[in-house]
Amino acid sequence: MHMPTSDTVNLSLLAANDQQAQHNRQHFDAWGLFCINVMSSPGAGKTVLLEQTLCSLHNTYAMAVLEGDMTTQLDAQRLAGSGVPVVPITTGRACHLDAAMVSTGLHLLRQQCDPASLDLLWVENVGNLVCPAEFAVGEHCKLALLSVTEGDDKPLKYPVMFREADCVLITKIDLLPHVPADLERMGHHVRQVNPHCGVFPVSALTGAGLGDWLAWLGQQLQAKGHHQRNPQRPTSDRKQSALTTA
Amino acid sequence: MHEVDMTRCLLQALEDWRDQHPVQPQVGTIHLLVGEFTCVEPSQLQLSFAAAVKDTWLAGARLSIASVPLVGKCLVCGNSYRPNPTSGYASPCCGHPLETILSGRELKIQRIDYSRPRICGPPVQANPCSQPTPSFVDPSPCTCPPATP
After folding, report:
1. Distance CA B91, CA B73 (A)
2. Is the pLDDT of residue A242 over 50?
3. In this prediction, does ipTM exceed 0.85?
4. Within an 8 Å CB–CB cutoff, is residue A107 touching chain B?
5. Nearest to B9 among A13, A131, A194 (CB)
6. CA-to-CA distance for A110 and A116, rounded, in angstroms?
7. How confident is the model at residue A165 (pLDDT cuts 50, 70, 90)?
8. What is the DSSP letter of A114?
9. In chain A, what residues touch B114 (CB-CB under 8 Å)?
10. Distance from C-alpha of B63 to C-alpha of B47, rounded to nearest angstrom
């Protein structure tokens, strides 16, 4: 005989992923590194932005990249040219990175370098404006890209992504003379769903606006670095100098 | 289709819940709360769940998904409102952007309905000092294996 009953659970549907993300985050904090989850639709310019950002910060911060793609390691090969450790994560059928995939990537990264020697870890997510918004990977900061060729209504059509972002870069502004994009309207739509996030128009091709983006990033690192740096790890001169001059 | 990965997370949570029970429960209905302001499409989640539980310990279980409306709170006028994309998610009275979300981001397992087999314990010894009690006749035969004393 069976006795019918009911349990009130009130548990997050994503509890399994959230627990793994929290575990990843504990590692990041213990290592004293700042993790940024980079998200956008396919072709918005995540990889070229990372190439330019890695190049700009190469002498300031020790960095590494976890590079997510559904198939191929083409982007990982591109970024390896920047001279930083890059771990490709091929997701197969999955349209986003989850916390377990990033955990696997971290174990592979440890074969290339000591994560405690890093300042910044970039996680380039799979190109998709939907799924990555819901799956935390343990990041400290979510960066969303929106290119001027995508239309200014995307923040209203995919509001969860732009609500979740800490910073939105409007990319490919070098194309503004050729496409009917309204920068002000794009920024306005982002702020309709996320009034307090940073919004910076940039062009990775010409370098326009990258200074504003890097200055914003420096502020985040300064704010986090003071209380999350591993006290047992000596502060590198590079990092200290970057923090005090940011 | 990220609902497949959502389903995987759901199954993991259900297995963790199951492992808290001494005897495997038979799950009937799993009640979920899914907010409107999430990336989950309930019908896709139903499809994915049905495919995933086939021939597993959850075979026969069903999802009951309650949608939770998106409700924002305007920090200028203090009113609660239902934001919608056509008006840019803005407060209808003063046009302020979507600042505070009161509901609509839920992705939650709220309740699990299940049945558990009755556990057969050792036979209770009659207390010779007490009055004889009427014998209890279970109308349904118990299929549990005999308990070992």
Report:
1. 8
2. no
3. no
4. no
5. A13
6. 10
7. very high
8. -
9. 4-7
10. 10
